[in-house]
Amino acid sequence: MLKFPVMLASPARPQPPNPGGDPDGRVIMRGLGWWQYEAMLAIRGDQAGVRLSYLEGDLEIMSPSRSHETIKTLLARLIEAYADEKGIYFNGYGSLTMKNPAAERGAEPDECYVVGRPKPKEDPDLTIEVIWTSGGLDKRRLYAGLRVRELWEWREGRIEVLALRGPKYTPIPRSELLPDLDLDLVTRFLGEEDQAQAVRDFRAALRSGT
After folding, report:
1. In the chain, pLDDT over 90 holds for what percent of residues?
2. At 185, phi and psi to the nearest 5?
3. How far apart are CA 148 and CA 140, in angstroms?
4. For residue 79, which of 172, 168, 171, 154 has the smallest C-alpha distance?
5. CA-based diameter of the chain, in Å?
6. Domain ranges of the chain
7. How far apart are CA 107 and CA 104, in angstroms?
8. 119: exposed, middle or buried (C-beta count within 10 Å: 0-12, 13-18, 19+)?
9. Which of 27, 28, 31 minimizes the C-alpha distance to 56?
10. Nearest Cα to 127, choosing from 152, 97, 146, 106?
11. In this predicted model, which residue has the larger pLDDT, 175 or 2?
12. Average pLDDT, the chain
């Protein structure tokens, strides 16, 4: 197994917990080179439950909480149900490792998608991040450097849509990739305990127009 030279980085720094008492596990290590990020990816391998993000020398190691995973999973199911109902070409890639060595950026989003028929080897153009625990890397800077067209952030029961405008993200009132999707309707079903029932009720609402 690879041995990661942690002595070349500053000490891991714990992040503040979520006030709801179900925090994500997160540490940030400073001053790491790209090769060290790649080494950490190799050590982690296919191990589930740990996500790595890298931004210009800072490495975030995050283990999402149960609440975090519950929200992101139901949100993904609802959006995918919408695409299915509307017949939209919509491919999901989960927490795909997205990397750009030249920009010193690497990310594993909560969810990511290609909307519309992709060109060969096209990167996802929509990423979703659930902001459950405060702190961590600046995901807007991270995904802007990866040239992701839209970033959706869920925070405290609300979904904010951000579109890439030049080098930065700008908030927009609705998605340009899925312009007819009512995100207020989506959030209405995110508090359901039974995910399957939430999806069924969401589909019924779409069909009835309510």
Report:
1. 77
2. -65, -40
3. 10
4. 154
5. 60
6. 65-208
7. 10
8. exposed
9. 31
10. 152
11. 175
12. 88
- Look-up of token digits 């720094």: 13
Amino acid in position 39: A
Residue whose entry in the numeric block shows the structure tokens 């989960």: 94
Q: Is 72 exposed, middle or buried (0-12, 13-18, 19+ CB in 10 A)?
A: buried
Partner residues linked to 130 by β-bridges: 154
Amino acid at 14: P
Q: Residue 19 — very low, low, confident or very high, per pLDDT cuts 50/70/90?
A: very low
Q: Which two tokens stand for residue 68?
A: 């975090």
For 46, the 3-state DSSP assignment is: coil
Asked if 31 contacts 6 with a C-beta cutoff of 8 angstroms, the reply is no
| pLDDT, tens only, 26-45 | 999 999 999 999 999 999 98
CATH superfamily of 65-208: tt1808, chain A (3.90.1570.10)
The pTM is what? 0.87
Q: Has residue 11 got a pLDDT over 50?
A: no
**Rounded CA separation 24/72 (Å):** 13
Instruction: Kindly report which listed range (27-41, 43-57, 140-154) carries the lowest average pLDDT score.
Output: 43-57
Yes or no: say if 61 and 54 are a contact pair by the CB < 8 Å rule.
Answer: no
CA distance 120 to 122: 6
Q: Which contiguous run of DSSP H or E holds residue 203?
A: helix 195-208
Strand 150-155 relative to strand 126-130, pairing? parallel
